[in-house]
Amino acid sequence: MLQAHKLTVAIGGKVVCRELDMVIRPGQCWGVLGQNGAGKTTLLRALAGLHPPQAGEVSWNGMTLQTIARRDLACHLGVLPQNEGGEFWGSVLEYVLLGRFPHRASWFGYSAGDHMIAQQALVQMDLAELAQRPLNTLSGGERQRAAIAQVLAQQVQCHLLDEPLQHLDLRHQAQAMQAFGKLREEGGALLMVLHDILWAQRCCDRVLLQFADGRALHGAAGEMLTREHLEALYQCPLRELAAEGGRCFVPGV
User: What's the alpha-carbon Rg for the chain, to the nearest Å?
Assistant: First the structure.
């Protein structure tokens, strides 16, 4: 269970959330929606213990993140960043194996079990045939799938995913969401930053709306994903359309 209590987060002098209380429980999938620059990535980093809050705290199973060693925390909490710094010069398989580092029992390399888990993650993301390719030769979408495979190989209880669908075509968006759905069925917890409201409707049971003025509103997806809330969030008129017994929202232009 990942919990934020009275969490206030700021970056560059801008407050992106104020006194946020939320609990991410096993089996839940949270979607985070908001305008560009609203602070979604900064909030996710604060929930991961990678950005210091202005006030309040984040805890994992009752222990504040600052009291947990990073390697121990990485055995339970996985983070998919929106952008990675630097360049990785190894193969796709070597890159995915980095997800096993927190669990590695020997200083002399990864075990056969680690390799098997990494290979399974590559299969899930349709990358098995590219396992020996240098990572830096992949397309943007292929690299995104490799990053997802890495966090799948980490085998944690809670996943914080920053725009996991970026660069992915429709087929691989569906593939990624199926993988995340399987994690949820197995009792995992997920929080993902999304820009596609339709995916939030289909896959998330909880939604957090992050407003540009630092307000945050969260609750059941059906209660949050209304035309009134979304027009206030994105500051633009929307059209509500019926789709296969449900509804979707598109800009009213």
Answer: 18
For residue 245, pLDDT over 70 is answered with no
Q: How confident is the model at residue 250 (pLDDT cuts 50, 70, 90)?
A: confident
**63 closest CA partner among 76, 51, 50:** 76
Mean pLDDT of 82-90: 83
Residue 207 CA: distances (Å) to CA of 19, 21, 103, 142, 223:
17, 13, 31, 28, 9
With H, G, I as helix, E, B as strand and everything else as coil, classify residue 39: coil
The 3-state secondary structure of 195-251, one letter per residue: CCHHHHHHHCCEEEEECCCCCEEEEEHHHHCCHHHHHHHHCCCEEEEEECCEEEEEE
pTM check: above 0.85: yes
Report the CATH superfamily, name and number, of domain 2-76+158-251: P-loop containing nucleotide triphosphate hydrolases (3.40.50.300)
Whether the CA torsion 120, 126, 129, 130 is positive or negative: it is: negative
Instruction: Give span(s): CATH 3.40.50.300, the chain.
Output: 2-76+158-251
Q: Are strands 29-34 and 189-193 parallel, antiparallel or unpaired?
A: parallel
- CA dihedral 110→92→46→187, nearest 10 degrees, is -70
Backbone conformation region of residue 126, classed left if phi is above 0, alpha if psi is from -120 to 50, else beta: left
8 Å CB contact between 32 and 40: yes
